Task: structure prediction
Amino acid sequence: MEAATPLYHFISSHQPLTQKQPRRYSTNFGLINVAETLPETSPSTSPSPLSSLQFDYEKEFHSLNSVRAMHAKMIKLSSVWDSKRNMQSFISAYLEFGDFQSAAVLFFVGFAENYLYWNSFLEEFSYFGGNPCEILEVFSGLHSKGVNFNAEILAFVLKICSKLRDKWLGLEIHACLIKKGFNLDVYTQCALMNFYGRCCGTESANKVFKDTSIRDSLLWNEAILVNLRNEKWAEGLQMFHEMQTLHVKANSLTISKVLQACGKLGALDEGKQIHGYVIRYALESNIMIRTALSNMYVKNDNLKLARVVFDSTDNRNLPCWNSIISGYIALGYLDDAWELFNEMITSNIKPDIITWNCLLSGHFLHGSYPEVLAILRRMQSAGYHPNRNSITSVLQAVTELGYLNSGKEIHCHVIRNGLDYDLHVATSLVDMYVKNDDLTSAQAVFDCMTNRNICAWNSLISGYSCKGHFEKAGNLLNQMKEEGIKPDIVTYNSMVSGYSTSSCIKEALGMIRRIKSCGMSPNVISWTSLISGCSQQGYFREAFEFLIQMQDEGIKVNSVTISSLLQACAGLSLLHIGKEIHCLCIRNDFIDDVYVSTALIDMYSKCGNLENAQKVFQRLEDKTIASWNSMITGFAIYGLSTEAISVFDRMRGANIQPDAITFIALLSSCKHYGLLDKGWKYFDHMKTDFGVTPTIEHYSCMVDLLGRAGYLDEALDFIQSMPMEPNAAVWGALLTSCRIHGNVELGEIAAEYLFKLEPYNAANYALMMNLYALSNRWKDVDRIRDKMEAMGVKIGPVWSWVQVNQRIHIFSTAGKTHQEGEIYFELYKLISEMKKLGYAPDTKCVCQNIPEVEKEKVLLAHTEKLAITYGLIRTTSPAPIRVINNTRICSDCHTVAKYMSLLRRREIFLKDGVRFHHFKDGKCSCCDFW
Result:
């Protein structure tokens, strides 16, 4: 054969692997038939003829030089050199001493033409640390020197090219096959398809298959496997169907892979047909096929048939057990999976790392995060060392649990076992530290990564942006580009989310424009991040404006968008819009989403429709802790403490562990109804019985509870005994209670702290002025007012609004009330009727030093009275009147609202700055305790 074009490109592109230390005993190369042995030689002081020599490596070959010297002597004696046994001995010796190129040259010269020798040679070559690249290097060198190779040798070299993804050498070999006009046999055709499938794609491999005139079963099987290896599941399944129409028999490997395709595609019917094929051809005894069958049924969510296949399998091996266990875990049957695991142990089948990783990842995916850590400990006790997959699952569980210390312990294990250089493990560590608010450690792990993928960049950028460190996030974004990694939509979305949750709405919107300028399209996550941030930060109107822009761009909302919009509805108490969104949820099948349902409960509760909130809650099947908390909070803000406590008891009966938010809701319900004993009970037991450490919010609730109940001295003692520094919410609760009970002395103490903590909060000054006014200390009222003027603190306008016929009507102290004459006429009429029933204006609510007659006029101008009156004038239906007020309702307005509900037989819902009041038949849901 003529020498082909020199293949120089390979020689310079591959480096040899690290060599193993040579074994000091004879190798077992295994190429020569066992019966072919060398005769023993008798010891002699003089050199024995090489033709009769059996090499003893311990005596003859002490170094690479000794091998080369003996080799040179053998070549000189050409009559005995070409002996297969002698060549085998030298190949083994060269391999032992790390001269892989010499070993490969000898193999090409003496053994390459025999199919039977290749696998043994490659196995031995790899054992001693040889890099298969060196075989190709030798081949290229020999080929360039004019050594002739037949089609069989080229086919085997082509297989090595496939394994090493050496595209160009493989193409040159194919060209050589065509140029020399070799009549390609089925093995060579298979090698070509395998090469093109791995290095050029399935289209090229399929073209080789279509162009060949040979349609042997080996070719059909190889063609199907090439497609399936490249995840062309549908194409592989179609080829298998065509193969059966031609009555070509599939081998066991092809059948198992096609069953895998049925699992990937959810093709249960096709899988059943292949099961029938297996039965017809009596292939059921093949354990690989049985495992594939079981796995196919599992992937199609048919555990019943998977179990039938498993139970009817004799001599189940470990992959068979792993398949069925993973099936039960994937579908959430964790207890059944453990039963199978224990049965496997009793069957003397020892689990492997795959079994343990399956248990770890399965428990994580189904939210059993504490169990993941327990499985890790059990796995280590059994003598298994976690690998990269184990560590990744455990780190994800630690992230969800917020166990930073446990995460650090796992990090230490990673370093000790050399797993910190694994890309996936390092990325999981970065993510764990970011989500546990330890950005310093996240940055340290990130800096130590040699090969950073885009996930690591995105995780750290997200961490900085969500914490408001936009300069650092921007620097990382620029550094990322400098290192040749192109930011993707996830990168920019994390910046959008960070800006929006930090109230930087303009910057978030600018980032969306930047996404467009980079040639990408903002997706539903981009817009939802913006809408969600607005809803969280109180920019409710902006949230709806961005929704309109999102819809204009043709992007459909998802469940997270819906949840954010419902949060905005709750913030603005827009019940009618909330109901429209509820209808949208039903039409688009969002109603079964637990997050959407929880948001609906919250929206209805905060929009004054507790009845609908209860209906949504009762229909929710898989209630999460957030769902229970929302319902408890809903009852709490209405002052329905009995109902709130009842929901808590039901939650405990459902084995749902309460969290910190649960106890905030419970304590709030107690303070709104004056249940001091129950409040103390929950506060004392939250840590001892439920492991929840009280936070500043819980302490604030207790101060409010004690203060509202009249235990002001006890409330002050409680504050002074707190394990943390009291914040403005704690002192604000005490000052509010002092105003309720008229305790100026303690009120001044609370106000002193508040003026230091929040020097520009006008509400604190207003509370203190009200307290002084109740005690007729008008000079102190003027002193506080002068202090406010000196600091530039102004009390914002008080407003109330009522919705009539889908339109919001606002009544504010800042401007003139619309239709004022008509409203006051009706209000005077109502007040006259109330006085006949015993109503007396509570002028103590007016904090001005004016005559009593003037105070009564001031009371009439309170915005909540005007809003309720307007609602009575403009609506005649039995529908409730819903009023929203931005400050705490005064006692006079509270009394007037009760009389209005009695006189006009109308339900009135009034949401003030603290809670909801439901007025009906002259009574309020708060029982006059607010």
About this structure: Residues 1-58 have pLDDT under 50 and may be disordered.
